[in-house]
């Protein structure tokens, strides 16, 4: 399967890109940081391609998708993994933070999908977008309002694409707490968080039952993505939920 993984230079995107290649997919890895992408492509092996792409720039998205389609000989699947989640109370979030969050989490998904649609339509392909339990399953988390709102918008974006392009299968992959990988595959989601605010909000998240106390193994998440991508063209799979098992209470 010829698969484009966006946001593949680090975190879950890197885990998914390398993991899919190890499971037999031919992959094009897209992200801004080309050096990191090239290292990921070497780890993925088997002709994986590293292609620089800034999802906040429509021209960059078009060029990167064109290069991926040329390198792979077409595109059967798209996986969109980029996400940023600033930790801040809504009253303290400035316009630049709102724009940056939506540019990455929502508008980037729209731009990369628009570029990929002709290729996905030609192959009756599938597109998968990493969503979040905070937008789909739980009440909003205090301090992660901008992230939650953007992921809720992403959910509606995926539904809108599905309504307009019935020849492509669109799937929201709702992901709970995931441990990510090691090294450059570690998630940078919490990078830049104010530790004082995090320490203040953590107990509130626990008290409200928003944290499960467990983590999904990154390899298990890749298995799910791989299964979704391999589903037949007649399987719509509008949403798939992957959350960790709750820890057993200590006796």
Strand line-up across the major sheet = 3-2-1-4-5-6-7
| CATH architecture annotation | 3-Layer(aba) Sandwich
Strand content: 5-15%
Under CATH, the topology can be stated as Rossmann fold
Structural class from helices and strands? alpha/beta
| Number of DSSP strand runs | 7
CATH superfamily: NAD(P)-binding Rossmann-like Domain
- Net shape: globular
Give the SSE map.
Blueprint: E1 2-6, H1 11-22, E2 26-31, H2 34-44, E3 49-52, H3 58-72, E4 77-80, H4 95-122, E5 126-132, H5 133-136, H6 145-164, E6 169-175, H7 195-207, H8 218-230, E7 239-242
Parallel strand pairs: 1-2, 1-4, 2-3, 4-5, 5-6, 6-7
Word description of this protein:
The structure is a single chain. By secondary structure, the chain is α/β, with parallel strands linked by helices. It has one domain: NAD(P)-binding Rossmann-like Domain (Rossmann fold, 3-Layer(aba) Sandwich), CATH 3.40.50.720. Helix content is 46%, strand content 15%. The chain contains eight helices and seven strands. It has helices at residues 11-22, 34-44, 58-72, 95-122, 133-136, 145-164, 195-207, 218-230, and strands spanning 2-6, 26-31, 49-52, 77-80, 126-132, 169-175, 239-242.
Compact description:
This protein has about 250 residues and is α/β, with parallel strands linked by helices.
